[in-house]
Specification:
alpha/beta, seven-stranded mixed sheet, 40% helix, Aspartate Aminotransferase, domain 1, single chain, binds pyridoxal-5'-phosphate, Aspartate Aminotransferase, domain 2, 2 domains, 378 residues
Length: 378
């Protein structure tokens, strides 16, 4: 089997598996005073330090969540509600929400819902250029034009194309405008230096940690109102007994993940060009995280290709994984102006910590057979 779908989920690293197993063997609720509780607390705080190191933030800013989706939801709802609640303390409410067109569905859906829910909040889309990079000139102009406090949302790296977004540039614009910045760092973590933001989100399973655990980093002083209330865990920012094994696994994965080289991705793309010179590689001219290749073989639909590859034991994905398992037209490629035919044929190969040159060759072999069959049929 050749698993080339690390952007959907990266297999559990050995260290993370050991940490999860050890945590399962630990007695106690981290809120309990006794020795068992203290042991669980120690595991969580150790993991918090490791995740904080990965994100380059103070450990006390890290709030553990049930994953990247929850972290994105908490950031959006928490920031808007927090700024509103903080008005007595001189906090200015957020009236403008700028969200890039290529954000993950968890950002897009929550941004739309929060705008619907809070009267006086307006949602604006930051357009994206054909190279897959969010348009900072358009953002600068919109920030200049309107009035009121803004929250700008821009992912660090896109999950479909791997294109690195100009977060440092956005941060400068945000600072000049007295706005707030939220960064979805889920696909960037472990692959590049993490950018600074008021809100930063992470997910363990994209870096070889367990599924169902993530983090929201809230910069000290940034407005935030908790959505999940209860026992006051996570300094009141997210109540609920902590997922100690998941968090311990997240910490171990954060500790061991290292930015990879582009060797496998580049070999793969060179192989694609040899097989079919008409291949389109999306975002190829932009800075990309080194593990992602999003490409289209004109005339071969994504669904057909995925099934053929799967029969050969090669696991790729069509752009974004969709919960229904169906191939969905990509909003990311649409925002880049890719035509329907090319977008409908888009496939994503994403490499990770256990990918090998043999995986690349297996994928290329399978694609080569597929293209040859297509040529015979044509
Ligand atoms: N943000 C991005 C950019 C993602 O790629 C994903 C997962 O695909 C998420 C958020 C959601 O993370 P999770 O799967 O942990 O809910």
């Amino acid at each position: 089997m050749s698993y080339l779908d690390h952007n959907a989920t990266s297999p559990l690293r050995d260290g993370a598996r050991t940490a999860v197993e050890r945590a399962f063997a630990t007695l106690g609720n981290a809120s309990s005073i006794h020795a068992g509780g203290r042991a669980a607390r120690a595991l969580i705080e150790d993991a918090r330090a490791k995740v904080a190191m990965l994100a380059d933030v103070p450990p006390q800013d890290v709030v553990f969540t049930s994953g990247g989706t929850e972290a994105n939801a908490l950031a959006l709802w928490g920031a808007v509600a927090g700024a509103l609640e903080g008005r007595q303390k001189g906090e200015q409410r957020i009236t403008r929400l700028f969200v890039s067109a290529i954000e993950h569905s968890s950002v897009l859906a929550n941004a739309a819902a929060v705008t619907e829910r809070f009267a006086g909040l307006r949602l604006e889309t930051i357009p994206v250029r054909s190279n897959g990079v969010a348009d900072m000139e358009a953002l600068a102009e919109s920030l200049r034009e309107g009035k009121g406090r803004a929250l700008v949302v821009l992912m660090a790296a896109n999950n479909e194309t791997g294109v690195i977004q100009p977060v440092a540039q956005a941060a400068k614009l945000v600072e000049d405008a007295g706005a707030l910045l939220m960064v979805d760092g889920v696909q960037a973590a472990g692959k590049m230096a993490m950018p600074k933001a008021d809100y930063l989100t992470l997910s363990a399973h994209k870096i070889g940690g367990p599924q169902g655990v993530g983090a929201l980093v809230i910069k000290s002083g940034a407005p935030y109102a908790p959505l999940i209330l209860g026992g006051g865990q996570e300094r009141g920012a997210r109540a609920g007994t902590e997922n100690t094994p998941g968090i311990a696994g997240f910490g171990a994965a954060a500790e061991s993940c290292q930015p990879g080289t582009a060797v496998l991705r580049d070999r793969f793309e060179a192989g694609l060009q040899q097989i079919a010179h008409e291949v389109i590689i999306f975002g190829a001219k932009s800075d990309r995280v080194t593990n992602t290749s999003n490409f289209s073989l004109p005339g071969i639909g994504a669904e057909t290709a995925l099934m053929a590859l799967d029969l050969d034991g090669v696991m790729l994905s069509s752009g974004a994984a969709c919960s229904s398992g169906k191939v969905k037209r990509s909003h990311v490629l649409a925002a880049m102006g890719v035509d329907d035919a090319a977008a409908g044929a888009a496939l994503r190969a994403s490499f990770g910590w256990n990918s090998t040159a043999a995986d690349v060759e297996a994928a290329l072999d399978s694609i080569s057979k597929l293209v040859a069959r297509k040529r015979v049929a044509a």
